[in-house]
Amino acid sequence: MPDLTSRGLPRPGIGLYTRNAREGVNPVLDHGFVDAVRSGRVEPVAAVQAFEGPEVVLADGTRLRPETVIAATGYRPDLHDLVGSLGVLDEAGHPLAAGARTHPEVPHLYFAGYTNPLTGVLRQAGIEARAIARAFRHEKARATLPAPRLGDRPADALSKGRASS
After folding, report:
1. How far apart are CA 54 and CA 155, in angstroms?
2. Distance of alpha carbon 51 from alpha carbon 64, whole angstroms
3. H or E segment at 31?
4. Interval 51-89: pLDDT, tens
5. Are 112 and 99 in contact (CB under 8 A)?
6. Integer CA distances (angstroms), 13 to 16, 17, 59, 162, in order
7. Alpha-carbon span 129 to 120, nearest angstrom
8. What is the mean pLDDT of residues 120-141?
9. What kind and span of H or E run contains 159?
10. Three-state secondary-structure class, residue 6
């Protein structure tokens, strides 16, 4: 991994091989992420500590009000401590909705990498990440459209006794 310390991502204390040998973990890094951090499109922040209403509390005490949260927490599937109070998890701590689907009570909280089909979790995480990106773009596009006014749609014209061509 390139040195991204100046961008808020310190270098790991141990190397990939050592981490695998000690913890049984193979870190995965998408080079698109590195490019996004380098260009400033992605700004790393401290770990999420808790959700309090519309705010996200970070480990360093910072509070944010993000539009959207994507929980891609790696090898920690039990999320009760983090989002258990939101009602979005089953009894085992797994998300009730994953990928581009969201829970109706928390429509801007996405989970990626929590399903493990026979085709593999890494492949599935990529599929889910792309679906989340599409859903996010769609939601942003809808949010920027002006609200429809009465008379803007053919059905409105018909309900007022007028025909539209």
Report:
1. 37
2. 10
3. helix 31-39
4. 888 888 999 999 999 887 776 666 566 678 888 888 898
5. yes
6. 10, 12, 19, 71
7. 14
8. 85
9. helix 154-159
10. helix
